[in-house]
Structures
1.
Amino acid sequence: MADYVKMWENLGMDLESHDMLCQVLPVAVGDVFMTQENRPKAMDFWDLVISEVHGIRPAELIEEQKKGRKVFGTFCVFVPDEVIIAANGIVTGLCGGSQFWVPGGEAVLPKNTCPLIKASVGARLGRTCPFFRIADVYVGETTCDGKKKAYEILGQDVPMYIMDVPQMKRPKDIVKWKEEIADFAQKVEEITGNKVSVEKLKEAIRIVNEKRKAMKRVYEARKSECLPISGRDALLMTQISFFDDPERCAQMCNRLADELEQRIKDGVSVVPAGTKRILLTGTPLAVPNWKLHNIIETSGAAVVCEEMCTGTRYFENLVDESGETLDDLYMALSERYMKNNCACFTPNPGRIEDIIRLAKEYKADGVIDCSLKFCGLYDIEKKSVAEALKKEGIPVLSLETDYEDSDAGQLRTRIEAFVEMLNG
Amino acid sequence: MSVEYGVGIDIGSTCAKTVVLDGNGDPVWQDLRPTGWSSVETAQAIRLELREKVKIGENVHFVATGYGRVSVPFADKTVTEISCHARGAAALFKTDHLNVIDIGGQDTKVIIIVNGAVSDFAMNDKCSAGTGRFLEVMANTLSVTPAGLCTMAEQGAETRISSLCTVFAESEVINLIGRGTPRENIAWAVVDSIAQKVKTQAGKMTLEAGPLYLTGGLCDFPFVCERLGKAFNREVRTAPEARFAGAFGAALYALAL
C-alpha cells in the first residue's frame, strides 16, 4: 500500500484508531472477494480501489481541492450529482458500512438507531474516514427520521445543507422537489463560486446519464442464465461508484460490461448451471458491508440483482437531456429522482412493482428482503412486499440484520434453508 | 449398491441427537446426549459409539444438521435443521401437509410443509425468548428444572408476563416473586409466554389447515402443548420421538444420498 500516513495526518485523522481499521479491511476483502474463482479480469480496478480505499481517491480529491474545486459529501441517491458537477464541484459518498464505527456512533446516538447512521456518525466523530474529513460541505436529505436528527450532530463543525425530500408523489411534490433542486443549485453556486449554466447542467446531466447507462450494462449482463459475475463483485462495483469520478466510473463499468458480454458469448459462468438466483431488496449496503452477499453466495446461491440504493435505484431511469432552460432541466431532474421508490414515500406501490418486474427480468428463483435493524420504513414494508411476491408465486425470505457478525450463524441457517427450499 | 445405513446427527445448542436408519428406513438406534462445549468432540464420540453398538461398516452415509452441523467433520452432507425437521416430522406423523413448531434450545422455528416440501418458515431472531433457553433461565430463577417448571405450571392460575425479551422477562419474574405471586402461577406465565411468542412469530404466515405438530426438546411437556393449542386455537400433536425429528429427517436425507 502506498504511504498515505502524511495525508491522513494532515486531514486531522485519528491515526492510531484508523490503523486498526486498516488492519481489518484487507482480511475482509480477502475472505469475501479473493476466495472467489474465475472472477472477471476487469475487477482488477475495483480490487485496487478497495485495497487503498482511504488512499487513492482521497488523494485525488485533495489534489482537486488545491485547484480550488469543492468536494460535496453525500449520503443518499436523492442528491442530484448533476447540479454539483455543473458547478465544477465533486461529489463523494461518505463512509458508513462497518461495525468498526458503530460504537462511536452509539456514544452520541440512541442504540436503537440504524447501524448505517451510527456508523456514519462514528466515522465522522472518530475521525477515521478521510472522505468526511475532506468534504467541504455535507449534503443531507430528509429520507428518514434518524438521518434528520443525525445531521444536527454531523453539522456541528462542517457546513451541512439539507434537501427536503417530499414524502408523497403527487404532481405538486414533483414541483416541490424541482424547487428544492433549484435552491440547492444556488447554494452550490455560492460554495463553488461557479455559475450553473444551461450548457454546464446539460453536460453534467449527460455525464451522469452515461455513468447510469454503463452501470446498467453491467446489470444487464447479470440477467443472463450464464451468470458472468458474482453478486459480491457487482456490489463492490456499485459501492465504489458512489466515490469515483463519474466519467472514469462509466469507463470502468463499460470495460467490465465488455468482458461480461464476451463471457456470456463464450458461456463462461461464475456458478454451476442450476444455481439458484436471488434478487436482494431492502436497505442500502454501504461499503464495506458485504455480509449478506457473502452468506448467500457461500450457501449455494447467487445474487443476481439488488433492488436497493446500492443497486438498481442508483442507475435506473435517465434524466431527459432535451431541456433548454434551467427550469426545464431542474424539472427533468426532479422527474427522474422522484421515480426512485424509496420506502420513505407513502404510499409506495412502485417499489413492489419494481421488485416483481426485476425478479422476472433477472430470472430470480427467490427474493430476499432484508432491512437494517431499526429501519422502521423498510421493516414495515416487508409485509406488503411478501404478500405481493407470494401472489406472484415468487418465494421470499424476510430478514433483519446489522453490521455485527454475531447473527451470521442464524442468518446462514435461514438462507441455507431458503436455498434448500428453492432447490426442492 | 444401496447404503446399509443412513445416519442423521442433529447437533443442537443444548443436545445432540442421533438416529440410525437401516436400508429399509427403519430406525435401529437413537441417541441423545448433551452437546457439551465441543461439537466436534461430541460428534466424534457419537461415531465411535455407533461403530461399537450398531456395527456400521463403510457403506453408510452421514448427514449433519443443527447449529453445529459444520462441526461434524465426517458428514457427507449438511442440511439445515429447517429442512430436516420438516422431512422428519412429515415422516414421523405420516402426512404431507403439516405445520411444524420446533422449539429448540436456542431457536424456535415454525415450518409449513406442503406436498412434503417446505413452503415457508419463520425463525426467532437473536433473542432467545420463546426457546428452550428461555425456559431454562426462568426455571433457574424459580429454582426448579425445566421439566419441574412445566409440571408446576399445570397447577398455576392465569398470570401474564408482557415482555418478549428474555432479560426483561426475567426481571418481571423477579418482580412477581417479590410480590409474593405463587410459584405455580409464575410457571404458568412462563410457559404461556413461550406459546404467545411462537404465535407472534407465526403471525405473518399462512398456516396449513389441521393440527400443529410440535418437535424439539419441549415435546415431552404436555402443558407446553396445551398453551400452544390455546394460543393458536388448534389441536397440538406430538410424540416422544418428535424430539428426534431433526435427526430422523437428516437420516432420511442420508439414505437418499
2.
Amino acid sequence: MAVSVKAVRSGQVLRVKPLRRWFGLSQEEFARALGVGRATVVRWEATTGGPLSHTAEGKLVRALIEIKSLATKAFGHQAKTWFHDQMPALNGKTAHAALITRGPVPVLMVLRANWDGGYL
Amino acid sequence: MPFSPRASAIAEALRRAQPLRGRIVYRQVLFARRRRVWRPSTRPWRWNTDFPALYTSLEENVTIAERVKLTGARRARIVMGIADATVHRTLDLTDPSLQALLGVTPEELVAETYDVPQALGTLLFQAGIAGLPVPAAITVVAKVYPSFEVVRGRDRDVRKTPASGTNFVVFTDNLTRGDGYPEQNRFVCEIVGIPV
C-alpha cells in the first residue's frame, strides 16, 4: 500500500526500525513475527518507515509497541533480558522465540496478565 | 468440539453450591499496581470473558508460582495481600465428582488454551455463581523453575515451586450481601524464579 506524505506527517505510519532494534530482532525474524516477507521490512525501513497504523501489519506493530511499554513498566532496565528467559506461561519457550514463531499476541497476553493480575 | 454440558448437569451442579466462609486467600500484584491489589480484572483471563473477575489463590506459594509463570527469572517486586474471604455462592471445581458431572477433565481446566475454563466460567457466572475454587495451572512453572526465592526485608527464603494447588476466582458482579474479602494483612517482597 502506498503511504502518503500526509499519513507520515500525521503519525499514522508506525516506524519499525527502532522497534525491531529494541527487541533485538533481525529483519528476517521481525518479518516472521509480523507474518510478512523480509522484503517488506527492508522496504519499510528504507522508505516509508513502517506500515500504516490501521492495517493488519500495523495492528501487530502496535501490539509490539504495547509489549515494549508493558515490559519496561514491569521490569525496568531488565525488560530486554526478560525476553530471553524461559517463560512458563509460554510453555517454557522464551518470549523472544514465541514472538518469532507465534507473533506478538501470546507475548502481549503474558505481559498484560502480569500487569493486570490475571491468571493465565 | 465446543464445551456444552447438559442443562440437567448444570442444574445439578448449581445445587452443589456451598458457602465459602472465613477462608484466607492470597492475591499479589506488581508493586507498581499496589493501589489495585483487590481490584478485579476486566480483561478476559482463564476463567472470565467479558465480566470482571478477581484472581486469588488459597496458598501463598501458589499465588507466587502464578507470578513466576509470567516473570520467570526476572526479579519482581510485588505486594502480597491476604484477605479473609466469604462468598456464599461458591462451586468447588477441584471436586472430581463435579468435574465428571459437568463433563470436563482436570487436564482441560489447566490446559494451555482457555476454551473450556472460559466457557464454563461464563456459564457459571451467568447462573449467579460468585466463587470458584479451581485447579491452578502451574505444573509448567514447577518444571521450568523448580524453586523460587522470596526476599522480604532482610530475609531470603528459597521455596520449592508447587506443581499444583488451588486458585480462588471471584466473580465480583455476583457477590451478594454478606460476601466480601476484607484484607487482613499485606506485605511487600521480591520474588524470582530459579531455573533448573
